[in-house]
Write a structure and sequence with these properties.
Helices cover about 65% and strands about 0% of the residues. The protein is an all-alpha fold.
Length: about 140
Amino acid sequence: MTDKDTLELEHQLSIAEEIETILLDDRDNIPDMTVSEYLTELLEKHQLNKTDVIAASNLDRHYAYHILSGEKKQPSRQKVLALAIAMGLSKTETQQLLYYAKVNQLYVRNTWDKVILHAIEKKLSVQETNRILSDFHLSPLLQ
């Protein structure tokens, strides 16, 4: 897979004569993965243990295993973010995970999202993230 940054993709779109060219190229550059497949790839890449990640995520153990196994096809954004934070993912990995989960990516102009982005950058835990969210009277990562 060839990684292209957003600016490069936008530039290619602006100069393309036909949209079909861009769409065909994208098929080769963006793998068709499920959220569970990408999580499995990340677990292997970062040499993480499922049990430890689930415990750190504060998710219900059975529900988390359903996400990781692919039984839960479209987990909520908050649950995906709890896993991302528990795994210590980078901002790029987290945004990609949200893409595969088919939920909105993090947006820096949204206050709640800004706290989550800060937590990702600073490698905070789910508990630390929830504390900051609470300090600013924002809804917790997990209800």
